[in-house]
Design goal:
Elements (H helix, E strand, L loop, with lengths): L3 E4 L8 H8 L10 H4 L5 H9 L3 E6 L3 E10 L3 E9 L8 H15 L4 E7 L6 H6 L3 E2 L7 H12 L5 E7 L2
Parallel strand pairs: 4-5
Antiparallel strand pairs: 1-2, 2-3, 3-4, 5-7, 6-7
Length: 169
């Protein structure tokens, strides 16, 4: 499959929630509740990422956006807020290209690292990110904003979550 990674256009932002929900269809009820599978990152959060130049789409010719990656800048790094790829386009290297783009952006901005939160027990989550150089963090090693994010995820009912960090290249 041919695709390119590019900054999201303003008019595309409203459609990214549908990609996010469809991407979560891969999760079983045991892995993620129906409520969480239907959650969409707020439109305002995606617009904020876009305004920082940190919202990318995977654009497939004649199809359009088949995935997206949203990040936010923290004091010393970039945090991957959400990365979603349509299941019909998964396993084509889109996630890898998104991670490379985030890493390059962090480096271009002179930032030290990239962080994310994910499920520890699902093969295409934490174990996959480990292969890309991310390391799991203990609470004592988390910057305050990341620790707060983990606490908010727990409060929202998400379990088996882990925070991860990778040095920017």
């Amino acid at each position: 499959m041919t695709f390119s990674i590019r900054l999201a256009k303003y008019r595309e932002v409203r459609d990214l929630g549908a990609i996010e929900v469809r991407a979560r269809s891969r999760f079983s009820e045991d892995q993620m509740s129906t409520e969480h599978r239907s959650y969409k990152t707020p439109h305002t959060a995606l617009l904020a990422c876009r305004s920082q130049g940190l919202l990318w789409v995977a654009d497939a010719p004649s199809i359009g956006a088949v995935g997206f990656c949203a990040a936010t800048q923290t004091e010393d790094g970039l945090h991957v807020l959400q990365m979603s790829v349509l299941p019909t386009h998964g396993r084509n290297g889109i996630g890898t290209r998104f991670l490379q783009r985030v890493d390059r952006e962090a480096s271009d901005r002179g930032l030290k690292y990239v962080t994310l939160t994910t499920f520890a027990h699902i093969a295409w989550n934490a174990p996959a990110y480990h292969r890309y150089g991310f390391q799991s963090l203990e609470s004592d090693d988390m910057p305050p904003a990341l620790l707060e994010r983990m606490e908010n995820e727990r409060a929202a009912g998400l379990s088996h979550r882990v925070a991860m960090r990778k040095s920017a290249v």
